[in-house]
Amino acid sequence: MIYVISGELDHVVNGTAHRLTPGMVGIVKPSDTVIHRVVGSTPVKVLLIWAPGGEVERLAQRFRQRPIR
Hints:
It is a single chain. The chain is of the alpha+beta class and 69 residues long. It has one domain (2-65). The chain contains one helix and six strands. A three-stranded antiparallel sheet has the order 4-1-6, with no helix packed on it.
């Protein structure tokens, strides 16, 4: 998941471009092909949350099984 804080970004998912501007969110699924391009000369700032396919569940299982000391 990518959240645009400032600037403009082309978020190209599986060949289809989506223009993301501040406040917008782009989503990428594990099977997607994605390209990001900065639009214009203004730098882009984003918040990127990356949890690879199955990673969240794997971590959740690990923490449920470990005793708290």
